[in-house]
Each structure stands twice: as C-alpha cells, then as structure tokens.
Amino acid sequence: MTANACAGRLFGDHFLSRLNVDEQAMVANVRRLARDALGPRAAEVAQRDVFAWDNFRLLAREGVIGTAFPREYGGTDARQVLRIRIIEELGRVCSASASLVTGADLSCRAIVAGASDDNKARLLPALCRGDIQAAFALTEPGAGSDVRGLSTTIRREGDDYVINGRKKFITRGTTADWFMVVGRAAHDPSCFIAVLVPRDAAGFAISPEVGKLGWAGVPISSLQFKDVRAQVSDRLGAEGDGFDLAQDALIRARMGHASMALGRAIGAVEIAAAYMVDRKLFGKSLGEHQGAQWMVADMVTQLEAARALVHLAAEKYDSGDPDAGIFASMAKLQATDLGMKVVTDALQLTGGRGYLQDFPLERFFRDAKLNQIGEGSSEVHKTVIGRDAIRRVRTLERHPCLKFESLENY
Ligand SMILES: Cc1cc2nc3c(=O)[nH]c(=O)nc-3n(C[C@H](O)[C@H](O)[C@H](O)COP(=O)(O)OP(=O)(O)OC[C@H]3O[C@@H](n4cnc5c(N)ncnc54)[C@H](O)[C@@H]3O)c2cc1C
C-alpha cells in the first residue's frame, strides 16, 4: 500500500490491501484529487449549483470516469471493489464529484451491456473521455419506488420506435447528449424496452433544472416525449430486456450510493473529531467528555461494520455471485441510513458551527438525505431484503432446535 493512500484515515485503510498495485495507485490519485482540487472547491460547487463541469472534466482526464468502461472502448473496466473505494474517497469531500462517478454506471451501464456494436464503438469512447454524456431515464410521475408502474409507451413503426410519456427527476437532463429511456411496448405492456434517444429528437422536451435540497452540482430535470422517434437499431438489448438492463445499472449504482454515504460519513466524523479536539468547554476539550466520546465510538464502529458489508457486496458482484443484488440492497440500506445518522450526530457534536453554511457539515447533512431515497428508498430495500429472507427460509433445512413439523400450533 502506498503511504499516501491512507494518510488522514482515523483507522488506516485495511481494504486497500485487497487491491492490486494499479488499483491502489488509482485510489491514491483520487485521494490526491480530493485533497488538492475537489475538496477545496466543494463548497463553491454546491453554492453555484450548476453542473460541475470542472470536476467532471478533471475526473474524466484522470481516468476516473473511465473506470466504469470496458478496456476496448478506452476504459479500465475496474472491479467494483475499486469503484466503491474511489466513490468513498470522493464522497468524503464532495457528493457532486462522487455522483459523477456513480452516475457513469447509472447512465452508461446499459449501453455497455446492451447497445449494438456500432453504437458501442460510436458512443462509449466519447462517454469514457467525458466528451459526451448520457442520462438514465426510468422514473416517472406515476412510477418511482414502484417502477413497474411505468406508463411511457414505445410503439414500433417500421425501423423506428415512437415514444410517448413523461419522466421526472432525471439527473443530467440538461447536459446529457443521449438518454436511456425505459418504457412499455405499446403492443404488450408486460414487455419493457430500453432505447437510446438523442437530446435533439423532435418532440423531446427537457425542463429547466429543478431546485433541490442537496447534491448541488448534479442537476435534475423532467422529460416529455410526444411522438418522439428513436431508431430500432438504438435499442438496448432485445425487446423485453429493458427492465433487466435497468436493474443491472441500478445494482452498481446502489453500491455507489452506499460508498458515497460511507465516505461522507467518514469525512463528517473526521471534521467533528477535529472540532472536539479544539473546542474547550467545562474545563476540558469536548473530546475528553465521555458522552461525546461514546457518540464517536458508535459512529466509527458502525461505519467500519458498514464498510465491510459494502466491500462484501462489491466482491460478490465482481465474482458474479447471484446474491450480489441482494447484498447491494443490504449495503445501500445499511450505509445510507447510517450515513444520515452519522452526519446528523457529527453536526450535533459541532454545535452552532455545524449549522452554519460556511462549515462543511451543513452541506454534508443536506447531501446525505438523497442516498436514502435515490436508486430505491430505504423502505423499498427493506421490503426487498425481507421478502428475500423469508423466501430463503422456506427452502432451508429446519432449525435443529425446532421439534414440530408445523409451528402454527406450537
Ligand atoms: C436528486 C434525484 C436524482 C434522481 N435521479 C434519477 C435519475 O437519474 N433517473 C431516474 O430514473 N430516477 C432518478 N431519481 C428518482 C429516484 O430514483 C426516485 O426518487 C426514488 O426511486 C423514489 O421514488 P419516488 O421519489 O417516486 O418516491 P415514491 O415512490 O413516491 O415513494 C415515496 C416514499 O414512500 C416510501 N415507500 C415506498 N415504497 C414503500 C413500501 N413498499 N413500503 C413502505 N414505504 C414505502 C419511501 O419512503 C419512499 O421514499 C432521482 C431522484 C432524485 C431526488
């Protein structure tokens, strides 16, 4: 491990040792970018609240965006165990920067997985270099948590698809060149189709950017499709693959949300702990008061446990384990709920300072909320995880301490 890579960490960085030398060098470089460029300008990015082009171009130039893309198209096809580390480093200082990296998965994964060879050759190198951008358009006014409620229709007419419907909350709506749009086949509502739509397509309207609580620097918009024509050759996967392609992108993006929440929470503890060392009250430093120490103890212990879970989810994804999806849900649920709690407690520990806009925790606090909502809210993941656990119990051998066949009349 390079010495620089874990400088400043409260407990060092044990997961780094599982990365190879090139991967460790990438983490060290991202840490350098976070320290020298992205961290110092994070408050300004948040204040301006327009797309963080400088950060995006820097991350593209340094090959960080390219970690999401295959080698044959100019990327480095990074393992998820590296991607989560990169996102954690960025989340520690700037949610917008972390989002630019997770967003590459969300908006481009389906193109990597499902575009025609021609489209891959045409789009992926430019997406990887950051010359163009894509957006992921799934959510609709009537379909957020319940994505199967989609009502956008995609009708085939010769070599074209005709798209009608609305999408909302679409990240990079104002900057994307291509939109991955998921809708239902007009002839068969059970058939989901994903197709690429260029931003200049006739009948396609993009709303102005919509104001929001946090994640400034990565704006969202609503989209409207009125008889928008897309080419059948721009479809992703086969007809019927739309939902699965979206899910694959979402699994990776959920691990991204988890890592971003962890990184931010780790940064929040570092900031709060530094304040506790400096702040004197009741005759000693805040850090010498047991009540405050216990708060920090809970934070760092739970954060390390959550990091282990996120890492495990990434390992499962990299090894093709079929449980990767459910572990991504668990990792997102655990890390994002904990992230919100840790940032709230860190702000509490810094008193009135933490509440002020020129202190970073105010921004961290506002940014933390979206991780619990986007890419499936915590409640949705609880539902998925709970349902999965009950399904597994049905197939397990009975627990050896249970005597009876049926437990109904126990
Ligand atoms: C800043 C931002 C960026 C986004 N970017 C994109 C994007 O790029 N592309 C895209 O397609 N979408 C995007 N989204 C949409 C995002 O994925 C949805 O907001 C999210 O999935 C939740 O859907 P919803 O907002 O419609 O909430 P709803 O579906 O209305 O749910 C509201 C709340 O109900 C609760 N809930 C839901 N289901 C259950 C249940 N079964 N049991 C108990 N409680 C439940 C949850 O607390 C949930 O938060 C973005 C959203 C935001 C805010």
Structure characterization notes:
The chain is an alpha+beta fold. It folds into 3 domains: 127 residues, Butyryl-Coa Dehydrogenase, subunit A, domain 1; 109 residues, Butyryl-CoA Dehydrogenase, subunit A, domain 2 (Beta Barrel), CATH 2.40.110.10; 152 residues, Butyryl-CoA Dehydrogenase, subunit A, domain 3 (Up-down Bundle), CATH 1.20.140.10. Helix content is 50%, strand content 15%. The chain contains 12 helices and 10 strands. The strands form 2 sheets. Strands 1, 2, 3, 4, 5, 6, 7 and 8 form an 8-stranded mixed β-sheet that branches. The radius of gyration is 22 Å and the shape is globular. The termini are far apart. The N terminus is likely disordered. Bound molecules: flavin-adenine dinucleotide. The site of flavin-adenine dinucleotide has 21 residues, from β1, β3 and α12.
Short description:
It is an enzyme of class 3 (hydrolase). The protein is of the alpha+beta class and 410 residues long.
Mean pLDDT equals 95
- Calculate the terminal CA-CA distance, rounded to whole Å: 56 Å
Unreliable segments of 5+ consecutive residues: 1-5
The CATH topology of the largest domain comes to: Butyryl-CoA Dehydrogenase, subunit A, domain 3
